[in-house]
Design a protein that fits this description.
single chain; mainly alpha; three-stranded antiparallel β-sheet; disordered N terminus
Amino acid sequence: MGKKDIFMPQITLQNDLQKRTHHFGSVSEWLTIYLEKEVTTLESSRKVQKRDIEIFIAFMQNSVGSDNCSEWTPRLSRHFISTLQRTRIESGKRHWQDNTINRMLAHLKTFANWISTLINFPLGNPMRKIKSISTGTILNIERAVTPSERRKILDAADLLLEIGGLSKDRNRIKEVKKRKKRKTYRPYRNRAIIYTLMETGMRRAATTSLRIWDIDFDKRILKAITKGGAIHPYPISREGINAIKDYIEKERENDNERYQTSILFLPSKTSRNSSGKLHPNAINYIWNEVSLTAGVSGKTPHSARHAIGVHIIEKTGNPEAVQRQLGHKNATYSLQYSRITEEKLKNVLDDR
């Protein structure tokens, strides 16, 4: 193959692009070429990039009536960001979190940089001066489980011992007590996991890595691996340690016949899981099941962590106590639990 043949694809592409520079062309047209000729990442990454840019294209068409590149200006880009930040779902929560918006902006900026090497935007590169949103270190403590929600969730966890894992075929079997329980269901384990999350503030990943020898039952301490890889001792309430004891006595030994591991919370012995360790997504599933029974929505396992921080600061007023419980390396995180939520501030203003 000669040099002429080697450079033919580039020449063909360049000719195609030069034709398009006679008019600005649409963002959609440029996206097609960009994905075909420029993006060399994995298919999964390509799909994310395509989706993110198409969200902007839809916004642009809705805002200015077309997606012609001549309409894409820095002001339009800033309007796109503010629109994403203001968009809410039915429950009133933000549809797009800041980290997601920053990912969109990163893809859009790379795309705009590429186009700007081929055409001249009327007001210059529309993404050149656009900066990512500063996510900072602000904790979303307003998503913390409230005392009322905590009570409901723990009651629902206790209820697992009676109704957890029962058949949901209500039409065929009307009486709850006559429904069969799934053989793979572990009500004591799931109850203990909920108590561990709620009564320690431990992250879900740390919960899956807990080992039975890391528990000091007398001192009520659970030693777990933190986010940074260090070992942190989490004090736990009496109710929490008793829930763990119940699980160990009633379920764990039977499942450990298969796994022979020190991991505390095990999959059922008939599970397809061969590692003997629950995936963090399993914690989400258990949490969501209990939350549904409790009638609590919009809260995650991490909301239980925030609840512990809020509870300690309200009881002690001491950020150091929060730091000791949650294992924050940076005291700034712990200090944020002393921030008053919007709802509490309104209550204070009304209570005069």
